Amino acid sequence: MKKWSVAVGSSVLALSLLAPTMEASTSVQQQEERIPILVALNENDVSKEQLIKRLKEVLPETFSSYKDSHFQMSSMSHHYVGDDVTRYELMFNKTVNNKSESGQVTFAGDQLEIESFYFTPSNVKDALFPGKVTSEQAQKVAESFVKKVVKGNDYILVSDALSYYSSRVLTEPIIYNYSFIRTENGVPIYDNVFSVGVYGDGTITQFYQTINGKKRLAFEDRTNLIPSAEAVNKLKENIQLELQYQLDYDSNSSEQKVRLVYQPVTTMIGLHATSGKWYTMSGLSESVPTQAKLEKLANAPLKPASPITLEQAKEVAKKLVNNAPEGMEFNIDSAYEMESNGQAVIMISYSYTSGNGTHSSSIEINKNTGELMNYSDFSSFMNRPSKDEKSKVPKLAKEQAVMIATEAVKKLAPSSLHEYSKPIDEPTYDEDMGAHYVNFPKVKNGLIVNGDSLFVSIGDDGQLKSYYRAANQITEWPEPKTAIEKSKATATFKEALSAKLVYTKSGNPTTDESYKLVYMPTVKDQEYYYIDATTGQIVNSLIPAGNDISITHPTAEKELNYLIQAGAIEVKDASQFNADVAITKGQALNTVMKSLTYFYYEVYNQESEKPMSFDNIDPKHPLYQVVESASANGILKPGQETFNPEEKMTREELAVWFIRTLGLEQAAEHSGIYNVTYADKEKISEQYKGYVALSQAMGLQKLEQSNFNPTHEVTYADLAVSIIQLAYEIADKRQSGMY
What we know:
The chain is of the alpha+beta class and 739 residues long. The chain folds into four domains: 26-208, no CATH class; 228-294 and 486-539, no CATH class; 310-469, no CATH class; 557-735, no CATH class. It is built from 16 helices and 29 strands. Strands 13, 14, 18, 19, 20, 21, 22, 23, 24, 25, 28 and 29 form a twelve-stranded mixed beta sheet that branches. Helix 10 (557-565) crosses helix 16 (716-735). The longest helix is centred in the last third of the chain and has 20 residues, at 716-735.
């Protein structure tokens, strides 16, 4: 993770409470993309029956009741660029108790190994909070599954694997994720990880491993290892920290923030465990890796930004990608404007079509500057040269690749060129694709912006193969002078520094490349770390830590703690939190929205006018985004009612929100058709009678000694228990296809 910058996707999403799961995605700009090459099946290939037989052999307990008619095989096999292993797709779908059960399996190679597996059972209620199995029990399920599916037993569970966190909403199943790493001679192979996902009811929901057809590389012998303590001391003596900016992404928000951090120089991977030399992106080095001096590509814009129209953007796209291989037709399928991280972007979707199918991709252009944001030469992946053809094209020198990449950047990003530095790391090389990957770091106030770079790849033929720029719009940058002294950060870092022995490869593979034994620096047994330059604290994760506060309660402890840790109930001090005190409508709405849906804050341009559903909740109000989202989803009714966030929430008002959430408002409005036997039914407001009747009948809100108590004020404990029942109802209706 130190090798590549991370850009977390944060597109503005229009969400519905009853829509399928939508999670914040994380994309990592990598050296190699796994580009699929599709091939039509013929009669000599694997049959559907063979795939079904293989699946039932491996997982008989899951698929013994499935008939051949429940399966469908893809008409296309595929392999990846640089990997000739053939893969086959098998989809399955079955109705169980009027609910759909479905999934997909990918088989790879002659032995039909399962490379990926995705499964959605017909009933997930037992997987919803609190779940039937604990994380420890789910781990045993994952380990048992791996033994059936993965060849050999040379792997270990990775207890400290990075896991990208997204809000734990109550309407989605609990998923326990486990990562395993393959080993050689008892040493972890750093780039060989596979993963398993287990639902909260103990069902395997997803599995993925990489089956690579490339020739097995050699592994360095473990003899003559430098002692671990000696390696750690050498790392501590030579560690070099650099002050940088680090982009932060709120898991519940598309808002971007930036912080000052100290990080080790990125050119150093670790210490070679047998020679004691430094292991870098370019191979072994006698000298201590240092950070290259930052040198901007330009001191000022080469030309001013110039807005671009949709038609002009189409012409730019044609010049870049209208080079379809022989026998294929090029088409621009669509062109439209969208918002990305506060910037106006034009998205151009294009495709290459042939008798075997269609290959599609897209290009992104900044509307306000006319500059390219994202592009990949998709045709080169479909028209991959043979070994003989590649041998006729000499490898481009690194210096030439950097020079060509720089000229491309000057042409494609002239108005923002001054924001980027010349490469500080050597280009990495993909031998199979014959492509050099060049990284231009963004620079602000003389510091690298970690997580915001301009990536370019250049082929050995001197042509631009890909181009990527993060669409980040940061307006507030911490002053470098507010950072703690480097000496203090270095002392903190040295004290925490350790190392683990791994097998790894450098970033520039050669024909005789092998796995080398390397002591990789770690902090708290993790490879990702930095020091917050403002607080001086070590941060060990890409994702901000969740709320670890827990409280006790006689009737709703488990529910309350789950909501607190998920961020749906905001608690700063457990000693000051009372779950039995009446809550306001603002507090209740905040909890409802963050409990039931993945909640994203919308980002608007400074020039755009933000909508206001209620006059008293303007864009500066802390509940503005929550209120607007609730209004968009029909929980609140702007124009028909007022919303005072400071008023106390009553039970009958909560019933209204619950029934609106389920889309049953029309039924609730016919209050005359409900004959309830509550002892206090006369106390229910006339306009709320239908809502209360439905909420109580569906088990969302319980009676208390035959009383509904419609005007009683709601507490956090009340809300935590009842919202669990609402989540069950939503999940059940979603799986039944009712929403």
